[in-house]
Amino acid sequence: MFRLLFRFLKPYRLQIALVLLFVFLQAMAELALPTLMSDIVNTGIMKGDVDYIWRVGGRMLFVALVGTVCAVAAAFFASRTAMGFGRILRSRIFSHVERFSLHEFDKIGTPSLITRNTNDVTQLQMAVMIGLRMMAMAPIMGIGGLIMAISKDRGLAWVLAVVLPVLAAIVFSVTRRGFPLFTSIQRKIDRINRIIRENLEGIRVIRAFNRIEHEQRRFHEANLDLTETSIAVNRLMALMMPSTMLVMNAAIIAIVWFGAVRVDRGTLQIGNMMAFFQYAMQIMISFVMATMMFVMVPRAQASAERILEVLAIEPEIEDPQVPVAEGTDERRGWVEFQHVTFRYHGAEEPALRDVSFCARPGEVTAIIGGTGAGKSTLVNLIPRFYAVDAGRILVDGVDVREMPQETLRAKIGFVPQKAYLFSGTVADNIRYGKQDATEEEIHHAAEVAQAMEFINEMEGGLEAPIAQGGTNVSGGQRQRLAIARALVRKPEIYIFDDSFSALDFKTEARLRAALHKETAGATVIVVAQRVSTIMDADRIVVLDEGRVVGIGTHRELMKTCPVYREIVLSQLPEEESA
């Protein structure tokens, strides 16, 4: 945890120094007050010196005022430091996660990443805000109070010698048992978040299959598990405070009892006994502060370890250290696979094996194959969403591993298999493909994507609101807006990953005709399940179990590729397929 704190608290060194300074002054003020009070009792009250009482009382008032101002200042700077620390840490996690390949996302999981960037950061913020003050205040008050108490009377010091080890044993015992529980709580919060996220995103499926009761049971079990663990932690923490207070009250009784005996014998002044009593309280309060810190530290430690786990992950896909030259104009838009093999982490068999083909500008290259053949995996390798295990992929004649990711992806207009839209307006979502797109460019892209028909029917047109994920539009409308988003940037390479599956045949035909004109001169790669979508492609790559089993035109493959012929005949009558 401290490694994480030191790294991200560096910009706030001055404010931390001010917090420590004000805490020190506050502690000195509080340590001075019992001595001033004992002087008033011993010299002023016992001797009836009213002037002395007023004089020393004025000093007490000034010291108390200084202590209050210092306490407010320390709280102010501690809060600013903690909030700034949280802001930096959240930004650092977010920017680091943005560099992850899809493998890293799969490894940790989206719900856990959300929890780590929210709940876990909040835990550390609280630890910093309270810790900056208490971690400084507790030792100063404890050690300073012990020195001052002994200076007032050594005879009562044995009470502290008995009480302090007992308090330390209680704190150590509770924190040792509490740390594993705090770690478990964070994991169970991840599980709750995952279930809630799945339910919110999959509510249509849940209702369609009448699985509401099943999902309620699943959530109830996870919620009950988290509740029981939280109750166990709180029961343990609740045991600490009464135990601490019991020991403190026993110490107060002992100090009053044995102090009164010494006063009666004349070996201890009343003012000194009162001062000793207050210093003993300050010492024990410092232990309570330490107790609160020990309650917070295990949970903050668990959160810090989870955050460090994310920050320690080195993205497998990094930009090259030395920029490479751009491809030549003659090769611009070319995409070439050379003996590419790729395996998902943990998979027994590669998803792609020894894949080789070339997609050229001005041509449509189609990818087809059965379910699980590796079609989407193949196109996800082009923009380097994953890293290949063997072979290489060339774009513009340059290996994608030698090209900055931003440069590579600027060349590509990608329409994913699952069309995702962001909260905002229709125009915002289309402009996502090109930030400085004009209204005319947005309108043109929507026209080509056959989206203007339904956009004009929406209230507000291009300014109509889109819900997160595009849940307020149909699947076909989402696909057309995603296509418009790719078209507006006018890239060198278009990748359509099964992007027409939700469209009716009439709309698809109009869209393909419009795309043919719009993408002329660009490289177009289309992944499709429908044979009718790709029959006219210049080149069709047939995949079967991750291998290329055929490359050619529709007519060529009907003669030479049994896998392709089987796919075609399963969808079209023999007369049409010819």
Spatial strand arrangement across the major sheet: 6-9-10-3-11-12
- CATH class category label of the largest domain: Mainly Alpha
Number of strands: 12
* CATH architecture group name of the largest domain: Up-down Bundle
Q: What is the number of domains?
A: 3
Which structural category fits the helices and strands? Answer: alpha/beta
N- and C-termini, Cα separation: 68 Å
CATH homology superfamily of the largest domain: ABC transporter type 1, transmembrane domain
- Uncertain segments are none
If you consult CATH, what is the topology of the largest domain? ABC transporter transmembrane region fold
Portion of residues in helices? 55-70%
Gyration radius (Cα, Å) is 35 Å
Q: State the major sheet.
A: 6 strands, mixed
Name the quaternary structure. Answer: single chain
Name the beta content range.
Answer: 5-15%
Shape: elongated
Mean pLDDT: 85
Helix count from the secondary structure assignment: 20
Would you kindly provide a written description of the structure presented here, covering whatever features stand out?
The chain is α/β, with parallel strands linked by helices and 578 residues long. The protein has helices at residues 2-8, 13-47, 50-98, 102-108, 110-152, 157-201, 203-208, 212-265, 270-311, 375-381, 405-410, 426-431, 439-448, 452-457, 475-487, 505-518, 531-534, 554-560, 562-571, 574-577; strands spanning 335-342, 352-359, 364-369, 390-395, 398-399, 412-415, 424-425, 465-466, 493-497, 523-527, 539-544, 547-552. Helices cover 65% and strands 10% of the residues. A six-stranded mixed β-sheet has the order 6-9-10-3-11-12, sandwiched between helices. It has a four-stranded antiparallel β-sheet with strand order 2-1-4-5, covered by helices on one side. The radius of gyration is 35 Å and the shape is elongated. The mean pLDDT is 85.
